Amino acid sequence: EPEVTQTPSHQVTQMGQEVILRCVPISNHLYFYWYRQILGQKVEFLVSFYNNEISEKSEIFDDQFSVERPDGSNFTLKIRSTKLEDSAMYFCAVSGYLHNEQFFGPGTRLTVL
Amino acid sequence: ILNVEQSPQSLHVQEGDSTNFTCSFPSSNFYALHWYRWETAKSPEALFVMTLNGDEKKKGRISATLNTKEGYSYLYIKGSQPEDSATYLCAFISYNTDKLIFGTGTRLQVFP
């Protein structure tokens, strides 16, 4: 059974619309991450989340992005006003300890038109 | 800017061949190196987490070595099988940070 599931698997949206990507870890994990991969490029770190707050974020993670764990299980990534360049595969990952192996979800493919 | 490089970008081998690929990373401020195996349409799956210089880890036919002083790690696959076909990613973590910095990956294709 996978450690992490993500919904939706594919989201198509219009530029300027808000999207929420969801991640559901199966077991108890302490650390949560979002990464993305733009087609043909490296997997890039977006944000890490620990103890209900952002632990670290990259330069990509600007004011248009936010994360939360509203109910203590789902971990969400919100993009407030999507741009064409936000089109990418978004991966959620979790780990039990800092710097330990991370368990990745299957990803959400976001297409912004 | 911290950069992680992997070579080769892609590799095609026959079933039964042994193969290896390289991950280069910054040698300063090193904390850990991760290797992940990523099959098409699946989640990246952790293979190894390596922290000590000289570390050597093994999982079945796959093994990895680590040289933190010169900033490289090798991944070896002995007797490649078609099910080994995947992209192999390495990722570097430095001290005082949470983030994995990924290489571009090596795409391995094993032909029967």
Polypeptide structure, described:
The complex is a heterodimer of chains A (113) and B (112). With 113 residues, chain A is mainly β. In chain A, 0% of the residues lie in helices and 52% in strands. Chain A contains no helices and 11 strands. Chain A has strands spanning 4-7, 10-13, 19-25, 31-37, 43-50, 53-57, 65-68, 75-79, 88-95, 103-104, 108-112. In chain A, the strands form 2 sheets. In chain A, strands 2, 4, 5, 6, 9, 10 and 11 form a 7-stranded mixed beta sheet that branches. Chain A has a 4-stranded antiparallel beta sheet with strand order 1-3-8-7, with no helix packed on it. In chain A, a hairpin with a 2-residue loop joins strand 5 and strand 6. Chain A is globular and about 35 Å long. The N and C termini of chain B lie far apart (41 Å). Chain B has strands at residues 5-7, 10-14, 19-24, 30-38, 45-50, 56-59, 62-67, 72-77, 86-94, 101-102, 106-111. Chain B has 112 residues and is mainly β. In chain B, strands 2, 4, 5, 9, 10 and 11 form a 6-stranded mixed beta sheet that branches.
Quick take:
The complex is a heterodimer of chains A (113) and B (112). Chain A has 113 residues and is mostly beta strands.
Could you name the key traits of this structure?
heterodimer, A: 113 residues, mainly beta, seven-stranded mixed beta sheet, four-stranded antiparallel beta sheet, 0% helix, 52% strand, B: 112 residues, six-stranded mixed beta sheet, five-stranded antiparallel beta sheet, globular
Topology:
The complex is a heterodimer of chains A (113) and B (112).
Chain A: E1 4-7, E2 10-13, E3 19-25, E4 31-37, E5 43-50, E6 53-57, E7 65-68, E8 75-79, E9 88-95, E10 103-104, E11 108-112
Parallel strand pairs in A: 2-11
Antiparallel strand pairs in A: 1-3, 3-8, 4-5, 4-9, 5-6, 7-8, 9-10, 9-11
Chain B: E1 5-7, E2 10-14, E3 19-24, E4 30-38, E5 45-50, E6 56-59, E7 62-67, E8 72-77, E9 86-94, E10 101-102, E11 106-111
Parallel strand pairs in B: 2-11
Antiparallel strand pairs in B: 1-3, 3-8, 4-5, 4-9, 6-7, 7-8, 9-10, 9-11
